Amino acid sequence: MTLAKKTIASGLSEAEAIDLAKAGDAPAFEGLYGLHKRRVYSLCLRMTGNTAEAEDLTQEAFLQLYRKISTFRGESAFSTWLHRLAVNVVLMHLRKKGLPEVSLDEALEPQHEDGPKKDIGARDNVLAGSIDRVNLERAIESLPPGYRIIFVLHDIEGYEHNEIAEMMGCSIGNSKSQLHKARMKLRDLLKLSRAEKASRR
Amino acid sequence: MNCKQFQEVLPHIIESGGNPDQEAHLQSCRECGELVRDLRYIADQARLLLPMHDPNPRVWNNIQKSLAREGLVPEDRMSRQGHTMTNSPAQKKSWTPLGLILAATAVLALSLLLVNYRSTNPANQENLAPPVPDNSPATAANADDHVLVSQLAQQDADVAGAYQASLEEVSSYISDAQKAVNDDPDDSAAQEHLRDAYQQKAVLYQMATALLLE
Questions:
Q1: One domain for residues A93 and A114
Q2: pLDDT band for position B132 (50/70/90)?
Q3: Angle made by CA atoms B150, B155, B161, in degrees to the nearest 5
């Protein structure tokens, strides 16, 4: 929520809390945690799709924050800096775990290569106006990891392809390609979900 | 240009638009048009997704312990209350329609508090929201939001604008979650979304009401 960024519970502004936390003030750090925990945790959860991993990574991100906050110079917004830190924590974790961040061999399903998809139902079967956020969240959870990470970083978190390429060590073209595949897969998942719901009625 | 050729360059078209040939195909081919519209729609909807989940309180407890273990912060320097606003997974599972009603009631109670504040403050009377003929819960909630924003606007237009944007986001989230619950009343995940949405709205009302009563 945008309003939460104005002040923290103790009445300090975020900037005041940052300055105090840089000096090792524990309550100020706690205030920053309260302010940013939801977004950092949601980022970790969406990128990993796993609650336990997301909790561990949130913890690690804030521990790194505590250790590194003195290096924050205010050249970007604090939230931007913190979220970049959190993304790096998640990507580092995935590298260690050996999960494919960007899988070059995750081929598109054949119908995608051959032309517009013509499955599920009628010709006017467009999604526009028919999906809600709950279904979209579920569909994102179902994406293969490589697709999901790029989709979360670009379409939800708002990173540009050049930033994603730098963070993930891939080419800009690869980032674009993976994003496109992710959206195509989501389209399939959302149409499938809608068809299943319709059939239950 | 045929569909296959169009699809090969689709990622580029979605990003930065097409050339005249590609645009012509897009206009003439219904299926490619639908595809492009869907992909843009998905990207647009994704931008509207809110960070919805709070971490379990044990995350904060573990951070405290780690900092203490590393000697960075004495454990007693941190708050003893932790961040306990989020329910544990076990508690989440116990949420029932009654819980959802209670969350909704919290929002209504805060609305009443706001109305009470408004009625005891004659200076605010002229800014009352217009009468709302529709008595549906969603419309009533929107009317409450409108009153709240109007009151805040008297104190600070920027703050009111921020609250309005947040309330619209949360109302939209509630609407989506309610739709999911209506589609499947036994869907525990949908219930969780709905509960989270109402909690977010309750927090907004708490913050706004505190601001008004300052």
A1: no
A2: very low
A3: 55
- Please state the domain count of chain A: 2
Which of B30, B42, B203 best tests the A interface by mutation, with the highest count of A CBs <10 A?
A: B42
Which pairs count as long-range contacts for B157-163, CB under 8 Å and 24+ apart, including other chains? B159/A3, B159/A6, B159/B211, B162/A2, B162/A3, B162/A6, B163/A3, B163/B204, B163/B208
Q: How many residues does chain B have?
A: 214
Residue-range definition of the domain harbouring residue B72: 54-86
- Is B56–A55 a contact, with Cβ atoms under 8 angstroms apart? yes
Q: Is the pTM of this model over 0.95?
A: no
Quick one: B63 and B95 in the same domain?
no
Question: For residue B48, which amino acid is it?
Answer: L
What's the domain range around A171? 110-200
Which residues in chain B have Cβ-Cβ distances shorter than 8 Å to A132? 175-176, 179-180
Give the pLDDT band (50/70/90) at residue A116. Answer: very low
B195 shares a domain with B133: yes
Residues B108 and B160 in one domain: yes
Residue A23, token pair as written in the block: 């000096």
Q: Residue A128 and residue B37: Cβ atoms within 8 Å?
A: yes
Q: What long-range pairs does B106-112 form, CB within 8 A, spacing at least 24? A: B106/B198, B106/B202, B107/B141, B107/B198, B107/B201, B107/B202, B107/B205, B110/B202, B110/B205, B110/B206, B110/B209, B111/B144, B111/B148, B111/B205
Encoded tokens for B54: 């709070």
- How many distinct structural domains can be found in chain B? 3
Q: Is residue A74 part of a domain?
A: yes
Q: Do B113 and B160 sit in the same domain of this protein?
A: yes
Quick check: B48 and A59 CB within 8 A? no
- Chain B, 115-154: which have a CB under 8 Å from a chain A CB? none
Q: Is the pLDDT of residue B67 over 70?
A: yes
* B34 to A27: CB separation less than 8 angstroms, yes or no: no
Q: Which two tokens stand for residue B107?
A: 């929002």
What residue spans of A49-160 are helical by DSSP H? 51-68, 78-97, 110-114, 133-142, 145-151
Question: Is ipTM over 0.85?
Answer: no
Q: Give the distance from residue A59's alpha carbon to the nearest chain B alpha carbon, in angstroms.
A: 6
Q: Which pLDDT tens digit goes with each residue over A165-195? A: 998 888 888 888 889 999 999 999 998 888 8
What residues in A contact B79, CB-CB < 8 Å? Answer: 27, 30
Rounded distance between C-alpha atoms, residue B204 and residue A178, angstroms = 37
